[in-house]
Amino acid sequence: MEKTVVLYPGFAVSHFVPMMHLARALLDHGHAVSVALVDSAVNPDAAFRAVVARAAACMPSVRFHTLPLVEGTPTLTPDAQFVLRYLDVVGRHNEHLRGFLRSSRGVRAVVVDSLSVEALGVIKPLGIPGYVLFTSNAAVLAAFVQLPAVLAEAQTSFRKLGDAPVELFGLPPMPASHLFGEMLEDPESDVCKATMAALSGIPEADGVLVNTFDSLDVRAVAALGDPRCLPGRVMPPVYCVGPFVGGVGDEVASQRHGCLAWLDGQPDRTVVFLCFGSAGHHSEEQIKEISVGMENSGHRFLWVVKAPFSDDPDLDAILPDGFLDRTSGRGLVVRQWAPQADVLRHRATGAFVTHCGWNSVLEGVTAGVPMLCWPLYAEQKMNKLFMVEEMGVAAEIVGWQRGLVEAAEVEGKVRMVMETEEGRELRARASAHKEAAAAAWDDGGSSRAAFARFLSDVET
Asked: Where are the transmembrane segments (predicted)?
């Protein structure tokens, strides 16, 4: 009988893609893979539907199964109630997941997304081991599993603490303002309670796979293995199996993106790449500040622009008059999307201005590119802290904290990373992490060994 692992991905591109990289690793090690998906009608995000379609097309060995949509299921929209709706969707589909698992043969384990831990309550009573894929880093995982208890003991909400530090075992002091947005809500609110309940469920898994590698997250990995990290509870095994980087289905693209041809014509390490993730965009005022800063810096740049409420932004309308003409030749502005991993690996790319989404961070690390941090949402402020203080691969653009990064800071930070000794030190540390990332999945590498432990535990 074939050995099957069922994957239950989340409803966001940034969570789905690492799960598909895990699928490939499982296939390479002789396991059959089934992917259970909630009906796409729940998620209006066209980018998510597109990546699911590409994965199904380019991974014929993976069996994709759609769980029927439960009547009354809310539609997922990117607003303050997103996480609450997300968890509601997971709960409503537990019975369909149970039915699918009962009808499947040879299931050795189920791996669920980190926001779908409620499904463990369905999986484990069936006698099937249940694991979590945590798509951020080990430091954020260490924070997340500790925060429910910290909040329960606190005399106030995290929001009221402002920038006062939250002390967590094994981690640097973290300003309360840097926490996941849902954690800053009133502790008695539905969204905060639901978020904390979900985080509390992570240690109930039989193990947690993390999209990182040991040497990038040394302090946090050690903390997760220490009983003091989770007093009164037992943290399950943590397997650092990353880095899982790059898109899914990119290899079947019909042609090379034009921005790569433009990069071919630029000198080595001279281009600043600005890209803010699949859901990141800026106001027109902010876009104009970036424009002025990049123009005044004098450096080459490739900038992916997303405008609010527009799938096809009118660049002439939102950029300063004459900007495109004045920067022609040394700058290229791309609407909406560029093949980020390919851009970062290109010899011409010298720095990366990023929103600090973890997939983007890993793509920067594996390319050996120094980064400038401009967090926007989710756990990105936490990632920024670790990138700057622990990993040493980035510097912070601080204006995000005031709601507007001014042109002078854009110019100054770009000049710093491209021209100064501080920038050269960032590059050297990024290059060292690049080498470590490449070694992690080699024979004897830490991630290969961690994945082997995971497979061994599944078979036990």
From this structure: none
